[in-house]
Amino acid sequence: KKQRYPSFANELLKEWSDTTWEIAHILGHRRYKGIVVYPHAVHWEPVQRSQQFLRSFAKEGYLCFFCEWNTEGEGIREIEQNVVIVYGEEYLLAALQDQCPIVLMTYHRQAVFCDLLPHKVIWFDILDNLDFFAGAAEHGVSEIYDGMLKKADLVTYSADRLMRYAGGRKDAVKLNNGVC
pTM for this structure? Predict the structure, then answer.
């Protein structure tokens, strides 16, 4: 039986791109424990901490999406079992509106993607000295980081010296590099 949608939803569905439909197909036809998303902040290569997290989650049965700018490629590309690069996070955003993914955030510009998802678990991983990023020329960066810390369901950091950026959260967890 075909599910009926309100007319505005039908219009939205018509606007879905082929890439969004590919992602929806993966979501609907795979078995997975959960979804982990890394909105665009860095490129897949060279592989860094965030990519290692995704690989580890994928090995445990999670479906993981790593977002790249859509100028870097087209569509999606599964590079390992359950690790999918999405070229254009907007395609993923549309497909996840009724999901509750874990969103791994490491950089202030990822907050916009996260804010557009109605349901999510926010994981903020502190990779480096936030003063460096917050002191950047962009207006309001430190406020964005403060908001990320407050909204995060989980806060992690990679070294003792970074604990001070956890905003006094007693529940912050140290995850050393190279331990995935």
Answer: 0.85
